[in-house]
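Kindly go through the following sequence and its backbone structure tokens. Advise at your convenience whether the structure tokens fit the sequence:

___
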Amino acid sequence: MHCSARALYHNLTPIKQPLAPCARISPSSGSNPNPILRRDFASSSLLLLLITPNTTNPLRAETISPDCADPAPTKQAFIDVAVDGEAIGRIVIGLYGDSVPAGAARFGEIVSGAGGVSYRRKEFVKIMPNYVQHAGLRSYGADAELARKTGSELAVDRLVEEWERQNENCTGTKNVARSVSIIVRDPSKPPPKLKLVARKGKLEIDQEEVGMDPNGTEFVITTKDSPELDGSALVVGTVLQGMDVVDRISRVKTVQENSTSPYFRVAKLIGDKRAVVAERGFNRPYSKVVITNCGLIE
């Protein structure tokens, strides 16, 4: 019996006498390697795999249990909507105060106007096939000043942290139909530009931000499952009543998207600012869709 096979047999069968040491095979000049070695080794390895219990636990898709179930709402909010001055109804939203406390608190504070700012008289500015988007608070003027006084920058940081945890805990689609989500980041934002500056007689490299980050006040309401929002929006609640109102908003006529036009693509490629302005108008409703009243339901 060859040494490798004998060693395997010794490991599998109790033997009282110790095995004799295997003789060393010293290749001589002109001699070929033993052709049995590779075959015996393969046979013994196969036998070892057959008799050794499989203790490995490979990570498979079916073993991952995404925790994407909707949590129980802890608080309710409402928004009343009008299209071109005509009231179309009320949307009641359940907020997830336990699973996303910062996000639910942020939305609740703005809805109620507790921080001096509110969604009242603010417009829905984008209507997509799967969701409608509200403009939130402006990044300039009185709203921005009041938002800074309420610590909005710290709030945005907490929202991003909750968004990261939500993506870790749920590997499936987060923004399912009826979801209410706050936009916390812009995946399309380009990375900072590096520039060389002189400070105290020394050259240093600075990073210059390109564009603005979301201020944590824009929100979306989904009419269908919208995985395209998972990279930017934190789910903070769900529509409990008034999906007929959301559907009515989604049927408002909008500016047709024209991003496939060769003229638009060339203008965007060369950095024409008119293309940027035109792009902002894509999917914007022709009618004025406004929140006329909003607040928390006690």
